[in-house]
Amino acid sequence: MVTAREPMASLDLPAVDDLVFGGHDIRDQSIEETVEQANEAGGVPNSKTLDAVREDLREIDERVTMGTARKCGQVVEELSDDKATNEGTLAEIVSQIRSDYETFAAEQDVDKLVVVNVASTEPPIKGDEKFDTLDELETAIEEDDSDLPASSLYAYAALVDEHPYVNFTPSTGSALGGLRELAAEKNVPHMGRDGKTGETLVKSALAPMFAGRNLQVLSWEGHNILGNTDGLVLEDDANKEGKIESKGNLLEQILGYDHHNAVRIDYTPSLGDWKTAWDHIHFQGFLETKMKMQFTWEGSDSALAAPLVLDLIRLIAYADEHGEGGEQPQLASFFKSPQGVDEHDLSVQFQKLYDYSERHLNDAPSGTVE
Amino acid sequence: MVTAREPMASLDLPAVDDLVFGGHDIRDQSIEETVEQANEAGGVPNSKTLDAVREDLREIDERVTMGTARKCGQVVEELSDDKATNEGTLAEIVSQIRSDYETFAAEQDVDKLVVVNVASTEPPIKGDEKFDTLDELETAIEEDDSDLPASSLYAYAALVDEHPYVNFTPSTGSALGGLRELAAEKNVPHMGRDGKTGETLVKSALAPMFAGRNLQVLSWEGHNILGNTDGLVLEDDANKEGKIESKGNLLEQILGYDHHNAVRIDYTPSLGDWKTAWDHIHFQGFLETKMKMQFTWEGSDSALAAPLVLDLIRLIAYADEHGEGGEQPQLASFFKSPQGVDEHDLSVQFQKLYDYSERHLNDAPSGTVE
Amino acid sequence: MVTAREPMASLDLPAVDDLVFGGHDIRDQSIEETVEQANEAGGVPNSKTLDAVREDLREIDERVTMGTARKCGQVVEELSDDKATNEGTLAEIVSQIRSDYETFAAEQDVDKLVVVNVASTEPPIKGDEKFDTLDELETAIEEDDSDLPASSLYAYAALVDEHPYVNFTPSTGSALGGLRELAAEKNVPHMGRDGKTGETLVKSALAPMFAGRNLQVLSWEGHNILGNTDGLVLEDDANKEGKIESKGNLLEQILGYDHHNAVRIDYTPSLGDWKTAWDHIHFQGFLETKMKMQFTWEGSDSALAAPLVLDLIRLIAYADEHGEGGEQPQLASFFKSPQGVDEHDLSVQFQKLYDYSERHLNDAPSGTVE
Amino acid sequence: MVTAREPMASLDLPAVDDLVFGGHDIRDQSIEETVEQANEAGGVPNSKTLDAVREDLREIDERVTMGTARKCGQVVEELSDDKATNEGTLAEIVSQIRSDYETFAAEQDVDKLVVVNVASTEPPIKGDEKFDTLDELETAIEEDDSDLPASSLYAYAALVDEHPYVNFTPSTGSALGGLRELAAEKNVPHMGRDGKTGETLVKSALAPMFAGRNLQVLSWEGHNILGNTDGLVLEDDANKEGKIESKGNLLEQILGYDHHNAVRIDYTPSLGDWKTAWDHIHFQGFLETKMKMQFTWEGSDSALAAPLVLDLIRLIAYADEHGEGGEQPQLASFFKSPQGVDEHDLSVQFQKLYDYSERHLNDAPSGTVE
Ligand SMILES: NC(=O)c1ccc[n+]([C@@H]2O[C@H](COP(=O)([O-])OP(=O)(O)OC[C@H]3O[C@@H](n4cnc5c(N)ncnc54)[C@H](O)[C@@H]3O)[C@@H](O)[C@H]2O)c1
Ligand SMILES: NC(=O)c1ccc[n+]([C@@H]2O[C@H](COP(=O)([O-])OP(=O)(O)OC[C@H]3O[C@@H](n4cnc5c(N)ncnc54)[C@H](O)[C@@H]3O)[C@@H](O)[C@H]2O)c1
Ligand SMILES: NC(=O)c1ccc[n+]([C@@H]2O[C@H](COP(=O)([O-])OP(=O)(O)OC[C@H]3O[C@@H](n4cnc5c(N)ncnc54)[C@H](O)[C@@H]3O)[C@@H](O)[C@H]2O)c1
Ligand SMILES: NC(=O)c1ccc[n+]([C@@H]2O[C@H](COP(=O)([O-])OP(=O)(O)OC[C@H]3O[C@@H](n4cnc5c(N)ncnc54)[C@H](O)[C@@H]3O)[C@@H](O)[C@H]2O)c1
Ligand code: NA
Ligand code: NA
């Protein structure tokens, strides 16, 4: 976890052990079964860990209720047998989600509810400018506008009741103008999009090197293979579209010029939860000499994502505690497409978090009383 | 070139076209022949470029005189047929080099002489603390101490006559206490060691990513193969020693903990001037999950080094012009082992150069007249 | 060249220096210009070679006449400005090609004319069973059937006049039943399809290792990037289809079971004539342990293909000389989808060629007289 | 297992379930503990498998007795606390080993005893010609010649009592002239050396491709990193020497010419039982165009070796059953340096095993009686 490092470790963040998990899903498969499959297919988590948390997983499962799959694309709908996932008007769905949140918070007696979107990637929506103001958005909900995706409904339900919200996926979530307005008005912190766990993380560390050395990138080809349900959903061209975008765009921002830049994602079931990315970077130096760098990144998708989700929960709860609403630029390093932040150089993004933490540490009363 | 980028490009640096090249060598082989071999073996530079600069290369050759190979190790001595390269007392050698510098400067009528060490890597010296003061160093020269290596003689000859000095190699050069004292006393800028052109450059961009994300590096294995004379000299275990050190040390500084960290260098003649590095990084994340990243870097050694040498000449001449003597931390990003700088994070090093440049740009009179 | 190795080198093959080149194209660009671009973009051939053959290239250009682009797909049609490439009835086109062949043979006074298809890849045709007999095929030509592709027209024109024919591309060429019948009837040798120069060559060498060791391949992912006109044409999904097929199919034949097997091809202009393939092989051994092999293959497409084309010309002319008509299984090792041969193990395919050569060497009169 | 494939599967081989394991070791560490460490460090075998065989492992441990470490080099001696491993005269040691073999066979009531050397790699011995005849060898044992290594003592003890013998390591084993004479005289089958499980396996599949296509290999660099005790022992330059030899030599045999060919082995503890090999092959094609292939092979050392050991036990027992003494060329594909076989092309080696199997299947009485 990033929050286990200094200076973040010295912040007064909620303890991991104090977190209580619950949520929505649209599949029936129990978490225990999902984790068992991951253990079988890729050894992560290992059998010892699985046995140690089996009881906890069952308890969490009881706190998971049926969600909505509105506008999530066909492949997501097929994950679920349950017709219910696509039924109801938007107003009914939103009201159900809000009530699910309250029930969970009440039953678990939590101090603060944080909502994190870790659902399957939705296809990007077209024409999001029609949800540019809170007014338009709320009208759309009332009028059951068929273009509003599930991720934005979960986000609306969170923000309207002042729960901090994090979007770990490339889906729309809180990125709509209307939701940013809502968050600002209610002064609730929110941030997204798309956790930066692997290939894109490396890109954001390497591309500044090419830029700083004035080595001109001619082409940057990335090919990803992965075997989990995320991979299955991303097989679908519609759902893949948003992912591709958030994986590729940062290069142009860092390098400052156009170049051939392609990202491929292929579903390779045998890999289970493991993902391999191969990147081929063709660049040009002195006297137009063409050279190349290649890398492979082989990671367990979930082992990379899980600690970041914990970090984000802790850090956004902290921001909320300190009355910091709206987008949270100090969290930029966690995202492929950080909302409200144009900077993609990883080191500069890290620095934002360190500066934020140090500012808070310096501001904090030193705990002494006279 | 880095100096072709903003904000450096706006500094009033000497123009590349105004530079005049000359120097010392201990081999007889003409530069033209060396470049022809590089063209044949690896296509860099290509035939067109070679033909375009052939005449210039011949002129430079006439400005190259015989140097010294003192303490450069057996493999370097074997590069030269000429016994002279190892003869004379230190005092005689130093006086010869100083006079060579002056002759060159006078004949070419240069405004400023900058000395850059791009000679073959020497074996590291033992017991450098006996050259810790200028006094000790000058006594050692007078007494013909057999431990002083060629690189430090060239550096002494430069600094004592107030010529800025850059050490692009892992050799000792100006890193001795006595030479640092001399540079400070005379207020001459100098900087080193070991140009950061390839594998180590990538390390300094990637390691901060692992550190920032709290992904624990378990082992970082690097294997380099290259085919030029640099490779031939580094085949020798004694000469290789210094190189290995400066390629490996930065990881520990960036990561802040010990781990298995090995660097191999193998001479593979068929590669000519091309170098391939393969790095294998084994790291551990959440729940002790072991993952890995691998990269290959395939570059033309000379095409990577040449622009940096030009950058360094321009920037150190500029520093000299502005009365900035001693070590030059703003140049840290160019070196594997930047003298006087502990920071190895590439982005932070880049920032030092940008800050330096902007400071100078802001200080500069804006060119307006009343 | 394979034919420079024993035992093939001892066969009485036509000398490379005796070959005269000519042909059809549908682009206007001169060969000299194409080769100049390849030299600029990727250094193959190098400037010296280019200068040495410049005159020959101009002469060949004069022997190249306008061909037909029937059924070659839109992207091929766009390569040519000339409307003529798509005009005329099939009967007119065939008669033109036959007359072009005769004119070339007469003007150059060649002993034997060999036709090799090295044109851009066509989209695969649907319903090729309607050309299953020579009768059906000739009727289709008379009736101007819009489904017959250019490659089969060039092949028909060759075979009907008893010129040996080689198809170095994945296009249909002589693979139609009707053309096989024609070749058999006229006893003309012909062979195809799709030169095996890179990734697929490696597959046919490696897959038998997995099979022989009973290591179960779970998935074999291949990703190809290339920058030449071949790459541009293969960007088009229709044209790519045939290529993908012939790159993937052999694995199933060698391994003998189904597995996840994907091939990607991406056009990356900066690579010029260079192609990089990255393959990721996930396999399972003892106790279901999952392991992996990855390889990259970085070759100059043309430098890999050219010698094989020369080999094939020499070997098929030889077969023709010896009265061997129909498909030529001894040439299987040269092709991704060898016509009439099910064996894909490279070593076994090589053995076919060695056996063929040795049979001929043993049969040949030993040159002694009594 | 290779013997699970046809045609070997149809041979009347001993069933795996009927095998009983025992042996010598010089370390105290129990097998259970070794396997537990492998499970922890690299997940092979996984926890389920470990639990399933735990009891068997304990039983095998009881059948393991103290062996000898004569001439195994310092690093092997350090594996053992027990002085006994280096004590006794050769005659005493041999007699002890023979009696250990008999005790095991008697107690377990086995039909046939097969001895397989899977001990740590010894340093290669110098001057093995002094053991060229059985006479010389037996004299050396009597005279306690300090140059005879442990592996040859275990081999002698096996062969003299007519137990088939397999050497899975690069150590000397039965490769001495005197032991080959003994095996021939007694008509006992034996074979070695050095199981071909990874990098070298790939080399023997790929090198024939370069040879057959007349692509000239300029250099073949191999770099291996591994983390188990095998790696620890191979850290020692003396012990590594034999391994390097058997990993490199085959290329020259297959290619038929000299080239730059280097193999590196580094101990990287974090990898546990996993081994990664990186190979870089630089080759030259048409018009001297230089191209390259690179591969990585990432395998679990033990999961790759174990099935081959089972295969070899089954196949050498079968050979013994059929009265086939001396070296066993049909087993060449299993070894990096197959004794008595010059052929290194993997496919040709596989073919030897298939031919052998089919010959036996055809010879076998069809099992019918009238
Ligand atoms: N390394 C990573 O794992 C990583 C990194 C960046 C982003 N992400 C994103 O995080 C998300 C989750 O990834 P994952 O690997 O855990 O995927 P997953 O497929 O294992 O889990 C997604 C879960 O979301 C559920 N779901 C789908 N649509 C839903 C909806 N509308 N409402 C409620 N639940 C819904 C699915 O049933 C499934 O249980 C994906 O969007 C992915 O792109 C993951
Ligand atoms: N990418 C790079 O090229 C790169 C990067 C970092 C550091 N370096 C260092 O720069 C140096 C030069 O590298 P290169 O590739 O040009 O090597 P090179 O072998 O091509 O050139 C070195 C030259 O130095 C000469 N020489 C050796 N000892 C000398 C001495 N005592 N006095 C004068 N001349 C001497 C040699 O004769 C040769 O002409 C090496 O030390 C290398 O380690 C190079
Ligand atoms: N390594 C290799 O180069 C390789 C390997 C296997 C197969 N092939 C196949 O060989 C063919 C040629 O490859 P390339 O790299 O030389 O491609 P290329 O694009 O450089 O050349 C193809 C030429 O064919 C011409 N052409 C296209 N359609 C034609 C038609 N109907 N009639 C006459 N000319 C036509 C084009 O104008 C172009 O000049 C392709 O089909 C390719 O898939 C090439
Ligand atoms: N993939 C593979 O595992 C592989 C492939 C080819 C060859 N080999 C060879 O097989 C051998 C075993 O490999 P490993 O990975 O199992 O090694 P390991 O280090 O795990 O096991 C070797 C065992 O041999 C014991 N030993 C050492 N010297 C001995 C002696 N003189 N007498 C009796 N026991 C002795 C050690 O104590 C240890 O228990 C090595 O020589 C290795 O080079 C292994
Ligand atoms: Na960075
Ligand atoms: Na083979």
UniProtKB/TrEMBL annotation, chains A, B, C, D:
Pfam families, per database record: Inos-1-P_synth (PF01658), NAD_binding_5 (PF07994)
Q: Which residues form a coiled coil?
A: none
GO MF terms on file?
inositol-3-phosphate synthase activity
Known InterPro entries for this protein? Answer: Myo-inos-1-P_Synthase, Myo-inos-1-P_Synthase_GAPDH, NAD(P)-bd_dom_sf
Residue ranges annotated for the Myo-inositol-1-phosphate synthase GAPDH-like domain, each copy included: 198-302
In Gene Ontology terms, what is a biological process of this protein? Answer: inositol biosynthetic process
- Highest taxon of source: Archaea
User: What family, per the record?
Assistant: Belongs to the myo-inositol 1-phosphate synthase family.
Name listed for the protein in its UniProt record = Myo-inositol-1-phosphate synthase
